[in-house]
């Protein structure tokens, strides 16, 4: 078999640099998730990556630069997932009826739960996000502005149309946040729900059932379904 031609030296250097950068990002994601930013040393990062410590400064400027790059990677993943799942809010007409808003809410909750439970995600990514949610660093602003805020605003828009509560009101924000958190809970608290429900994993049917139940609950709550479902009082 004829051997493949060797890459030009410039291409080889670029390829090596890319591999080094990716190795540092992977090592940073794991170590920052496990120990937090302050507890991780540049020596650990270099050892975990199998590179020289100087590579951190060369590619990222500093340990803080590497952490920022890791957060950017995680945020992009989360923002893409949210954006695709919550697209019904973007398609909602400006003068949408309550019924149209309700359909959008139902679709958004269903899609978000499905995406969060069925999209593969590194355990280190989930752990790092939890660290930032519980004990935020300066990097939390990036996660909030690029991923969380657009998602919350999407829910706030449909909540306004479905419940007539102004988007700037605390009632609206509480409802939008509550629906968003409820949809995310089955991923964020995966181990708890699986243990409680006697399961080892989420099957596709489990995901469909959970999505339907939570979407129906959210829809009925926003449209007042709970009130309309109450039995009438017997005048006797």
Average pLDDT: 89
Instruction: Tell me the fraction of residues in β-strands, as a range.
Output: under 5%
Query: Structural class of the secondary structure composition?
Result: mainly alpha
* Tally of DSSP β-strands: 0
Termini separation comes to: 95 Å
Could you tell me the radius of gyration in angstroms?
23 Å
Helicity range: over 70%
Q: Sketch the major β-sheet.
A: none
Morphology call: elongated
Number of discrete helical segments: 12
Extract low-pLDDT stretches: 225-236
* Sequence of secondary-structure elements: HHHHHHHHHHHH
How does this model look, in words?
The protein is an all-alpha fold and 236 residues long. The chain has helices at residues 9-35, 42-49, 54-60, 63-85, 87-91, 98-118, 123-134, 140-163, 170-188, 190-196, 204-223, 225-228. It is elongated, with a radius of gyration of 23 Å. It starts with 8 loop residues before the first helix and ends in an 8-residue tail after the last helix. 29% of the residues are buried. The model is unreliable at 225-236 (pLDDT under 50).
Short overview:
The protein has 236 residues and is an all-alpha fold. It is built from twelve helices and no strands.
Keywords:
236 residues; disordered C terminus; 0% strand; mainly alpha
Layout of SSEs?
Elements: H1 9-35, H2 42-49, H3 54-60, H4 63-85, H5 87-91, H6 98-118, H7 123-134, H8 140-163, H9 170-188, H10 190-196, H11 204-223, H12 225-228
């Amino acid at each position: 078999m004829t051997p493949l031609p060797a890459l030009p030296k410039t291409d080889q250097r670029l390829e090596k640099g890319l591999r080094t950068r990716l190795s540092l990002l992977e090592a940073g994601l794991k170590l920052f998730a496990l120990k937090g930013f302050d507890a991780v040393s540049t020596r650990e990062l270099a050892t975990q990556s199998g590179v020289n410590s100087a590579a951190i400064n060369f590619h990222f400027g500093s340990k803080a630069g590497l952490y920022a790059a890791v957060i950017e990677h995680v945020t992009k993943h989360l923002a893409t997932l949210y954006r695709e799942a919550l697209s019904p809010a973007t398609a909602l007409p400006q003068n949408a009826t309550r019924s149209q808003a309700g359909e959008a809410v139902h679709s958004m909750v269903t899609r978000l739960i499905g995406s969060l439970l069925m999209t593969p995600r590194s355990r280190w990514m989930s752990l790092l996000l939890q660290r930032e949610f519980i004990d935020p660093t300066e990097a939390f602003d990036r996660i909030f502005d690029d991923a969380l805020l657009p998602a919350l605003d999407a829910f706030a828009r449909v909540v306004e149309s479905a419940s007539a509560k102004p988007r700037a009101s605390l009632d609206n924000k509480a409802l939008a946040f509550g629906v968003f958190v409820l949809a995310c809970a089955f991923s964020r608290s995966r181990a708890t729900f699986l243990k409680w429900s006697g399961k080892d994993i989420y099957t596709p049917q489990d995901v469909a059932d959970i999505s339907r139940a939570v979407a129906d609950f959210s829809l009925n709550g926003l449209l007042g379904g709970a009130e309309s479902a109450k039995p009438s009082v017997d005048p006797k």
